[in-house]
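Meet today's protein:

…
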Amino acid sequence: MDAILLAVDDTYKFGYLNPDDQPYGYQNVWATEKTTGPDRLVIAPASGQVDVMLRLMEAMPDPFWVLYVLVVPRGEGEPGRYQSPEPQGRKPVQHLLEEFKPFFEQDGRQNLWIASTEGPAMLIYDRHNVLYAYGTLDGFRAVLSEIGLKEVPSIRFPRPHTHHYNEEFDADAGRILEYWEWQHTPLRDADTE
């Protein structure tokens, strides 16, 4: 079993219909996944996804491009891809993640991408509350082992499931759009999956 049901709370990102909408969580696991391109890691922490992302960034050279993908807005702005105006150093990206940690971890309206400009290393924090890691997989695996996540054959999302867009994060959703002078482009089909 790759998942656990979490205690019911009104504010959560990703839910499980069994039979009612309840928070859904993973069991601190990760898997290697084949894609049409290179392999990637699917990382499913039980909690603290931003902290895991910060640790994984240690295995990536900076500077970084940051892409904030607003899939389901609640009035804060237009849906779309918001790219940082220029590559950002490690400290500014850490600050962004720490400042908006509750929003990223408890609201399902967005995805967040962080990509090294110095090679193929990239992290994606997905609306399904998992992280995808590309590029320097051996470095990422070492970090995951260090922090105690266990390898499993695969990670599966519950079907059916729900995404939550919580009113208490509307102010954060607006603030993040003002954080940098983002370059806005339309959503791509894959952004809404």
In short: The two ends are 23 Å apart (CA to CA). The mean pLDDT is 89. The longest strand covers residues 64-70.
